[in-house]
Amino acid sequence: MKNENHTLKNTGKYQPCPDNCHRPAKAGFTRPAMKITLLFVLLFTTASPAYAIDFKDINNPLIETFLIISFLSFLPAVLIMVTSFTRIVVVLSFLRHAFGGQTVPPNTVVIGLSLFLTFFVMSPTIDVINEKAVTPYLHEEVSFGEAIDEAVPPLRQFMLKQTRQKDIALFANLSKKPVPAKPEELTMGVLIPAFAISELKTAFEIGFLLFLPFLIVDMVIASILLSMGMMMLPPVMISLPFKLLLFVLVDGWNLVIGSLMRSF
């Protein structure tokens, strides 16, 4: 006896199932979460120094699935090292210490704000990668290796704009490999550490400028307390309200975030 697939109609009777009723839908067409996940996987793959692997030779769907699941564990490293997250979170941490708020704003607020600002800065690059790499791959128009090749140039272009030539030259010399004629030919293994230390330098420069006005307030308050003979009273306790008042009066969050976003 032949086994037939059946489906239950509203009448309560079983009717033969159409030929395509159990056909699996193509993944990714209506799954935004999967598209976002694959986008970050491509970001990691293009940013990894292990990109020297020829992904064009990978045609096995099981291997592709294994690579995608394995790369998911490295997404935090991608977010920190190849995006604007490093500069933003370091600057916000400097700002918190500048006006003396050791736990205000809390770490969750600082990291959450840094994440959303990172997505705001990286949105043009992510849109290009999504258009040229993620969507064609999900529609099975390109292979996994071709999708990676399409995802590399937008990410490299963003990183090159924020990286100093001195830092690129440092890691190019340390790698003991021939220096490419064009910056676009740099390997990600050289570009990623150069980009990271360039971001740290820029963040420290911005942090120094943020400390100056708060340092002046601390010095003024300390001088006033010393002239009044109140040497036992910690100046930080008195200067903190004045620093917060100054920060609010000048609309500090608007100035700091606006300047930080324009730095990219």
Question: Percent range for helical residues?
Answer: 55-70%
Q: List low-pLDDT spans.
A: 1-31, 50-57
How is the biggest beta sheet arranged? 2 strands, antiparallel
Distance between the termini: 69 Å
Q: In which order are the strands of the major sheet placed?
A: 1-2
Q: pLDDT average, as an integer?
A: 75
Name the assembly state: single chain
Explain what you see:
By secondary structure, the protein is mostly helical. It has a domain at 26-209. Helix content is 67%, strand content 2%. The protein contains 10 helices and 2 strands, in the order E-E-H-H-H-H-H-H-H-H-H-H. It has helices at 32-47, 61-72, 75-81, 85-98, 107-138, 144-162, 165-174, 188-227, 235-249, 252-262; strands at 6-8, 14-16. A two-stranded antiparallel ribbon has the order 1-2. Residues 1-31 and 50-57 have low confidence and may be disordered.
